[in-house]
Amino acid sequence: MPNVIPIHTARIKPAPIYTLPEEAEMLAGDALSSPFPFTLFPDTKARTKRGKRADLIALAKRVERTAAAEKSALPLVSLGRYGDLKSEHGSLRHRKNLREVHGLEADYDAGEMPPSEAARRLAEARIAALIYTSPSHGLPGKGHRWRVVCPFSGPLSPEERERHVARLNGILGGVLSRESFTLSQSYFIGGTGGREPETFLVDGEHIDGRADLDAGAVHARTSEPGETVSPPGDWPLKTIRDALFAVPPDTDYETWWRCLAAVHHETGGSKRGLAIAEAWSACGEKWKAGEVRAKWRSFGEREGPVAAAGTLFRHARENGWEGPTEDFDDDFDALPDDDDPNAEIARILGLDDAPEPKSTGGLVWRTPDQCRVSAGTDYAVKRFINKGQVGLIYGSPGHGKSMIAPAIGYAIAQGRETFGLKTKAGPVFYLASEDPLGLERRVRALEAEHGPAPDFQLVGNVRGLFETGAPDLKELLREVQAQQPRLVIIDTLAAAFPGLEENAAESMGRVVRIARKIAATGTAVIMVHHTPHAAKNPRGHSVLNGDVDMSLLLEMDEGSGVIRGEMKKNRNGPLISLAFTIGVKELGTDEDGRPDHGGLLRGTARGRRTVGAATAPATAQGYGALPDPRRGRGNRGPGGPARSDNRGHVDFRFGQSAKPGHRI
């Protein structure tokens, strides 16, 4: 066994030095005491850095003296020299900013090999190194966890680092984690919770000065040693979803793709799992359309899992999640490049030489037969709005926007027709961001008229969805994923997105993107919005109307009280015209004993609006005798059926029903 020589520090127990056999001392030089440059990052974001210089003995003392309450508060060390080029996320730690490497850092998390054994092997190979334990070393169920640092004799190019990591891995028996091979690598140093790290110094030569190590080199593993892998489906979907949403989606890239990989494994790569992953990632500023789907596909092409529930749960607990208390052995705390994620994941997962798939951008390829089978099957309201689409209902104040929207939603929640259009039953979320009390009264009226609808949920206290990372948006996406609603209604756009500059293309485009993120989970989204005074277009920048899949303009005839709804855009079928009046429903008495009322649609009708001189005029066929709101039965008098003019515009005639002074 090598001799152990203590080095005394001011306040920490001595760090042992594993020395060379006597006959090898002349070959060693002074690698143990030769200073080398390294970089300290204050946290994982790496937006600032400090360049330092020390030998292995001084670095061991720094590791021993560094402490924090939690691992996330510890600094990270890299034996590279970085420039000042920041990534798009503001990080200085990425491969394009790595100028040169002065050594390597590597990671062992399998739990079986003690650090003293690693020191013994390095001493026998005559390689100078510092080994220090990680914060999780020795914790129940964790076993041995340590990091190893080997300086070079001088600066090397970043491309040369991987070769020397493989040589070190060969000396240690191929046990290093695959993260050790990641360029721009960095690791936490120090102790947490009052537990001091153990350090081991090995005297020897610089690893890059040895020409006899290549034959035994062991390159990156394709699976993590010691990782506990649960079978797919071993954890409830809700547990996986809750853990995932506890992790900030704009976390570092390593954590992001490991969480995705864990969800892929635990859900068996299912569409449901993909929808959860999409919804989570869409909460972040870094979200890019098609990126999650591409990663999902790449995980499915591998043999064996990349990560499992343990990885996900650990990251979730680090962010305050109180989930399963079982511990896992996949304690990855290595950090990847903050650079090109597609290239990085291909390199880490060993997909560099994999054949290119037919599509990498999430394209969907369908034959005519498949188009025939899939056409029009996934609607919320048939020919009105489908799942995954974004619609707009707009009009002037008091023109029935907040009457028709809950009526449509309530019909979907009950699975009954609305305006003669079929619906598919499912949960409905109604975000009452402008007038929650008024909406409560209308929902009571709908229940009194049509019966209970437990799948209709009125959501109040909506403080803002405009910021991508807003708590309300995160909670909404989490519940959308949990309950899989058919429809989400946002009433109104302006109230739900405070601070919105409606006339700015960028701001209005952001609203549409957020709505698309919600719809990407598999729900339909309808936003309620205003028009400028006496105008027929939505208020604000035209990007809103241009980017939605359906838009419905509501206008009231002040004389008759009839409200006409005219579709300006419909990607699901012909342009539809609707008509209704606003009636009232008795709701008992209020706290003062006076009659209470709730607003309700009366005399609803639907037609198809035709366009152009060559088309036949629309007819009232199918409307039947529209009910007179004043009589509650069929009527062909003043509230009679619809008529059409020769331009194809449907004319609906109804009686007035809402009395002045009624709160509806």
Description:
The protein folds into 3 domains: 4-216, no CATH class; 237-328; 379-651, Rossmann fold (3-Layer(aba) Sandwich), CATH 3.40.50.300. The chain is 26% helix and 23% strand. A 9-stranded mixed sheet has the order 18-17-19-20-16-21-22-23-24. Strand 27 (643-644) and strand 28 (650-651) form a beta hairpin. The protein starts with a strand and ends in a 13-residue tail after the last strand. 46% of the residues are buried. Residues 1-14, 20-28, 222-230, 325-361 and 610-663 have low confidence and may be disordered.
For the structure shown, list the relevant keywords.
about 675 residues, disordered N terminus, disordered C terminus, Rossmann fold, 7-stranded mixed β-sheet, about 25% strand, 9-stranded mixed β-sheet, 17 helices, elongated, alpha/beta, 3 domains
In short:
This protein has 17 helices and 28 strands.
